[in-house]
Structures are given as C-alpha cells and as structure tokens.
Write a structure and sequence with these properties.
Elements lengths: L3 E4 L9 H21 L1 H12 L10 H9 L3 H24 L3 E6 L2 E9 L2 E5 L8 H14 L3 E6 L8 H10 L3 E4 L2 H10 L9 E3 L4 H10 L4 E2 L8 E5 L5 H12 L7 E5 L2 H15 L5 H11 E5 L3 H11 L3 E5 L5 H5 L5 E4 L5 H6 L25 E9 L2 H17 L3 H15 L4 H6 L2
Parallel strand pairs: 4-5, 4-7, 5-6, 7-8, 9-10, 9-12, 10-11, 12-13
Antiparallel strand pairs: 1-11, 2-3, 3-14
Helix pairs in contact: 1-2, 1-7, 1-8, 2-7, 3-6, 4-5, 4-6, 5-6, 7-8, 9-10, 9-11, 15-16
C-alpha cells in the first residue's frame, strides 16, 4: 500500500533559486572585501548589518567578567550543568579514538596518529534566539579534542553584548571572544585580519548567509557541515500520546519559518489527533508566528500500514532529528541508518539534544544524514598516517613490488624509487641505475 497523507507540505522546497543566487552574490562580495581590506571591511559590514561598531570587537577579560556578572546565577548553574553533560560524552568519544601502529610484515610498520587541529573557530548564532548551547557544542567539543586555540564569534543582540552567550563561550573554554556576526565573522575567521586570527576549521550553525559563507570558504578552511533549516521527524505507533507528538513537533517548528516537521505513523487516529493538538497549541505558543508558518508550509502527516514501512520511509527522509515514540523505540537502532540523531522513547525529546543532554546538536540536514554524522570530537582531529620500513629485505621486496605496480600505471619515476631500494638492499641490477651513475 502507498502511504497516505493527512497533511502535505504547502511548499515543496526550502530553496528558492533567485534568493539563493542573491545570497551567494552578497556573501562573495563581503568575503572579497574582507580579504582585501581586513578589519576596516569587517567594521563596515558590522555597522551595516548589525549596527555594531565598538572600539574593539574582541572582548577583554574585564568585559567578559562584567558580562558574566550580569547573568542570573541559575543560568550560570544551568550552563555549567549542560556543559558537564557535553564534556562527559565528548570525553568518552575521544577515549574511543585510538592511535594505531601495526607491523604488517617483519620490519614494515604502519600507523596513524589522531592529531588535533591547532586553531578552530566557533560561530554561535544570535539572530532570533541567543543559542547558548551552540557554545557548548562547538567550543567545548573542540577543547576536549585538544584544539589549542578556539575563537568564538557571536553577534550582538539588539545592539547589546549577549551576556549569557558570552558566559557560555567563556565557560566552554574559548580563548578569544568576539562580538561579531554573520558573513563578516565567518570571512574574518577564514581569511584572517589584523586583529582576528585565521582558523583552520570552523563549526557552528547560522542563517543562510553564514551557511553560504562556509560553503564558499570551504577548502580554505575546514567546516563541520553545510546545514539547512532545523528538521524533525517523529515515528509513532498507535500507542503514542498525540499531545506529546504535537508538542514535540512544534518544539522544532519554532526554529524558523522553514523548519520541516513530519509525523509518520501507522495510526490515522493519532495523526488526526496530533493535527488537532497542534492547532490548539499554536493559539498560545509565543513563537507561533514562526512555528505556524513552518507547520503550514513544511508540515507533514503520513499514514503507513506498519512500523516496518514507517522506518523505511523515515530512512528515505534522512531527517536531522528523528524521534521514536513507539512501545519498542530501540527497534529504530536496527531498522534505520539515515538520520542526524535518534531520540528514543517518550522520555527523550529532541529539545534535550538541542540544549542539555550531552550529545552534539550540530547535525546534518537536507538528507546529508545518508552520508555523514554530526559534529563530534573526531571532526577536530586529523587522522594522519605514517609508515616506516626498518628491514632491508622488506624494503627491497617492497621496491620490487612498487616498480611493477608503478610501471603498470606508466609512472616511471615512482618505479625507479622502488628499483633503487631493490638494488641497494637486495643487490638487483637495473640498467637505468648503471646508466645514470656514469
């Protein structure tokens, strides 16, 4: 049976070609200007886009402490608790990554080391919401990986320093904090200016301009992901609570007007009840001006025959967040492979992952979960191989093999490197060596 839809999206794509082209052009011009003119261009765009032009974009130690002092004690305590959870999980991930060295044959050693990136940038959004948790996810994870220097950039909010975000960045371990947002922040960290150090890797979510800047600068620096709007997909069976389903779908729809929220269920009754409760909750939700647009334009409710079909369809969506509200939620671990992160059971909501449970909230969107996972300590590590041959016999034999392999590909220079070891260590004669030494 083909899945039936109780609700289809009103908009079929979150992309608009004309808008995307305009964003791309604006971003390129900003990057080119900052590349050519450094700090003066950064200041120009900060004034233009954020109406922000302080004496220094970098916060002094005194300014950081002043900002922290303005944050309520409970918020500071909550930041520390959330960061403790992130740190525990990140440290467990780091401990799982091992250096390797093996002797594949007598005298031939192969290995790899997991070396941290030296300098990383963290972009912490602050447009609609001050995303404190992004500081935990980007800065703290980098520090656990061993990154020596982390630069944090976050925009002003309504012309003011975002004190709670500054507190989160400082407590996460940021070495420098700049109140700077948008394309100008990304470009400055990527190319370097007189006052902003060039980074080797940049992580963190952002709006369309930030995402486009990361796309254009990828290669010049590494990036975590090319992320789009937040997504949620809920797989629910007939035992799920419709009010919970509705609440959790709206929790992600409020991110912005283009955040897909999808329900896949084997129960038409659950689907209809969920739609009813969504409409009821939108009447009182303070962010309904965003969530209602997302639900109207990108919301879906799909009815399937059974849970096997539900998991199969969910895998096709490859959503950023997949919440499983069934009697046996761990079935998803065996039945799904395409997702950013799984949230198993009613006691586990996506918002926990966004804010405080400890897993990273920087996750793949737009079906990128088919080929990559989210941000984690491993993204800040370079797994770099090395090799050493200590046996003359082994080097000679490898030289003989290398010569044959290289000549099969018509690489004579490569072959001669192998020949030379074969000649040196095993005494094999090669005409080209004799001729070259004359």
């Amino acid at each position: 049976m083909v899945a039936r839809r109780l609700k289809s999206p009103a908009v079929t794509s979150v992309d608009n070609a004309a808008t995307s082209q305009k964003v791309s052009e604006i971003v390129k011009s900003v990057i080119d200007d900052i590349r050519a003119n450094g700090d003066s261009a950064v200041r120009t765009y900060s004034e233009k886009f954020d109406k922000w032009s302080p004496a220094s974009f970098k916060l002094s130690d005194a300014q950081i402490q002043e900002a922290i002092a303005k944050v309520p004690e409970q918020t500071i305590s909550d930041i520390k608790e959330a960061q403790k959870n992130v740190r525990i999980f990140a440290e467990a991930q780091r401990a799982s990554i091992k250096d390797v060295e093996i002797e594949i044959q007598p005298g031939v050693f192969l290995g790899h080391r997991n070396n941290p990136i030296t300098t990383a940038g963290a972009y912490i959004p602050g447009g609609r919401y001050p995303l404190l948790a992004s500081a935990h996810m980007t800065i703290l994870t980098a520090k656990v990986a061993g990154v020596k220097h982390v630069i944090a950039c976050t925009p002003p909010i309504n012309g003011e320093i975002p004190n709670a975000t500054v507190a989160a960045a400082h407590l996460a371990g940021a070495d420098e904090i700049f109140i700077l947002g948008g394309t100008q922040a990304v470009a400055a960290m990527a190319v370097g200016t007189e006052t902003i150090r060039k980074v080797e890797f940049l992580a963190g979510p952002g709006n369309a301009f930030v995402a486009e800047a990361k796309r254009q600068l990828f290669g010049e620096m590494g990036i975590d992901l090319l992320a789009g709007p937040t997504e949620i997909l809920i797989v629910a069976d007939e035992h799920a609570d419709a009010f919970t389903v509705a609440t959790d779908l709206l929790s992600q729809a409020e991110h912005g007007p283009d955040s897909p929220a999808v329900l896949i269920t084997n129960s038409e009754q659950l689907g209809r009840q969920t739609m009813h409760f969504i409409e009821q909750q939108l009447k009182t939700l303070s962010t309904a001006h965003l969530a209602s647009v997302s639900w109207r334009d990108f919301g879906e409710v799909i009815i399937v025959d059974d849970m096997d079909e539900a998991y199969g369809l969910a895998d096709e969506y490859a959503s950023e967040h997949v919440q499983v509200l069934t009697q046996t939620p761990r079935d998803a671990l065996e039945n799904m492979t395409n997702y950013g992160a799984l949230f198993l059971g009613e006691k586990t909501c996506v918002s926990y992952g966004d804010k405080c449970i400890g897993t990273n909230h920087v996750l793949p969107t737009r079906k990128a979960g088919r080929y990559t996972g989210g941000l984690w300590v491993g993204k800040y590590l370079k797994t770099q191989t090395y090799q050493e041959v200590t046996s003359e016999k082994a080097s000679g034999e490898l030289g003989k093999l290398c010569g044959r392999c290289a000549r099969a590909e018509l690489f004579e220079g490569h072959a001669r490197s192998g020949d030379l070891r074969d000649s040196k260590y095993l005494g094999v004669k090669y005409d080209w060596i004799e001729q070259a030494k004359q």
